[in-house]
Amino acid sequence: MTEISMAQALNAALRDAVKDDDRVLIFGEDVGPLGGVFRVTDGITADFGEERCFDTPLAESGIVGFAVGMAMGGFRPVVEMQFDAFAYPAFEQITSHVAKLRNRTRGALSLPMVIRIPYAGGIGGVEHHCDSSEAYYTHTPGLRVVTPGTPQDAYDLLRDSIDSPDPVIFLEPKCRYWSKETVSFTRDGAAMDRAVVRREGKDVTLIAYGPMVATAMETAEAAKAEGWDVEVVDLRSLSPFDDETVTASVRRTGRAVVVHEAAGFGGYGAEVVARVTEQCFHQLHAPVLRVTGLDIPYPPPKLERHQLPDVDRILDTVARLQWNDEPAVAGA
Amino acid sequence: MSRETLAAALLPSPVPVRFLAEDGTRVDEHGAYTEPPSERLVEAYRLMVLGRRFDIQATALTKQGRLAVYPSSAGQEACQVASALALTEADWLFPTYRDSVALVARGLEPGEILTLLRGDAHCGYDPAETRVAPQCTPLATQTLHAAGLAHAMQRRGEEAVAFALIGDGATSEGDFHEALNFAAVFKAPVVFFVQNNGFAISVPFEKQSAAPALAYKGVGYGVRSEQVDGNDAVAVLSVLDDAVAHARAGRGPVLVEAHTYRIDAHTNADDATRYRDPAEVEKWRAADPVRRLETYLTTENLLSGEDIERFRAEAETFAAGVRDTLNADVEPDPLSLFEHVYAVPTRQLAAQRALVAAELEAVEG
Ligand SMILES: Cc1ncc(C[n+]2csc(CCOP(=O)(O)OP(=O)(O)O)c2C)c(N)n1
Q1: Do B127 and A109 touch (CB under 8 A)?
Q2: Do B348 and A102 count as a contact with CB atoms less than 8 A apart?
Q3: From A217's CA, which of A80, A89, B311, B334 has a CA 20 to 30 Å away?
Q4: Which EC number(s) are documented for this chain (chain B) (predicted)?
Q5: Each residue's pLDDT tens digit, B2-13
Q6: How many domains, in total, are found in chain B?
Q7: Between vectors from CA A207 to CA A203 and to CA A212, what angle results, nearest 5°?
Q8: Active site residues of B
Q9: B123 and B88 share a domain?
Q10: Nearest CB to B152: which of A74, A107, A244?
């Protein structure tokens, strides 16, 4: 077994899905002969034909709305939005139709479709190429929102998402496209809807997802030197939220920090903090804290290091959880 | 075909296609279009009488508080009825909120059509079974669904057509343009039917678009286009029959614009006297599509006084049925709120369902 990148794992998942199910179609901007701007669809048109993987006119609402019709007509579209901020023209189709059709028709019509969105920053991209848009989608009932943090999860989650009878927003952390690991292509079907404990520890739980999983793992390693034993939970599924796994972890450690790249205000982390607080109040030794991006439009590349939570910022926050069972002081 | 001949083939006729003058006499402004067989015209007339009566009944039900809101299509019956008659059972219809009469003509139950406007459910019928998409409220979004579904049917080798209804105002939305382009590029069997009824709520057509006619918008996308007198049922039926046949034969999408008029306000909640002159409405009343077809068919001896009486009586019975159905109070089950949000239910929703169930029990118990 050789190591492959997350982009290659996603490519393998798409190929296997196209092979296994005639209804699966891939389309979007530049996904055909070019293989997508991140090469996630590399070679699929060459190997499976234009019928199965094809370029569309340049129109995001068009791509998603067309996919809605095709899913109504019995296909399973897997569409690519080229970059996070360019999915916004399709936002109405996603919130008004993709999320709601099953409910509006009381189950008569379903939309098994996957909308793949390369998201978040850390690649030195210019503006509109680095948005963390998860909160928009997780706030929309009817959608499943997932994001892989590792190549193995990328493969498993994408296959599960394509098989899902519910529409899935599939957020691909751009900065991890090139991270590698050995991937097994036998699926156990357990990735969907479930968080996973990536690393066990007994002092504090770091809750992360997508691009921040690797950063959280690094932080856990660095924390050893400080004498802290850090557990890392990778959410994988942002909606629905896996309370069980998260709650069990925080009850064990008694402390939690939520880490994400998106702006903190009104962000996804607030939801996680609320749930953890509600369910683990009596086990908590300190308030649940957040480490998030700043509440600013995504900055230009030369400044993005200030935006992204890094090991130091997370460690500083962990330090604020105070290890003497005294209550932590917010903002200290 | 050279690009020049192709462009010429896509162009709409310079004036709207018309078979009947406003007084119901036959005119020759229909180019190569042929008059539909008389049985189809009589059936169209019957459905228009039924549709108008339905529309009046639904409007009355808003006054009694039985419907939350109703967007009338009075004056647009020729367009509404022809939309349904042009299609087979295998074809898909994509209606908007205003197109309830098209659904009546398609044979759907009034109670099922009006659940949306009554507030019971977002869609009262089964779209998979009836091949009628839910009536669409976000403007123009359904045109893309029609294009996608048409492409899906084509791939599956079904000889069916998707037929999308859209208003004049909604043609300004981006989705309409994306849909025309997608349909043309994929040669999808879809008919886009614009009912230009003069207004988007309060905004008149002149402030909506500077195009000589909306039909011209198809040409730039490579979509065959046509314009028709929307109050002439003979013309609308003939043009739509032709458009559907064109799409069905795999020759690509068609855009048809019908010039018509919205006789009533945007909905019962709107005051149209604030933005238009009642004299304009009177002028259009004289162009009434139902009377126009009635005069023509009677003059041609295709319709007798007894037929008319029979159709009106049928419409009265139908309206009485609508009243009875809507007067029966049906209380939707609150727990149904949690159904069909996901195919695979989430734990979060299960918890919230339990909460509402407990609240209900506390109230009832
Ligand atoms: C995306 C969107 N924007 C605004 C509205 C509010 N709205 C409802 S109907 C309407 C006017 C539509 O006019 P037109 O397309 O001419 O259709 P008509 O109602 O005249 O049949 C507006 C602005 C909406 N439903 N959807």
Answers
A1: yes
A2: no
A3: A80
A4: 1.2.4.1
A5: 878 888 889 999
A6: 2
A7: 120
A8: 262, 266, 275
A9: yes
A10: A74
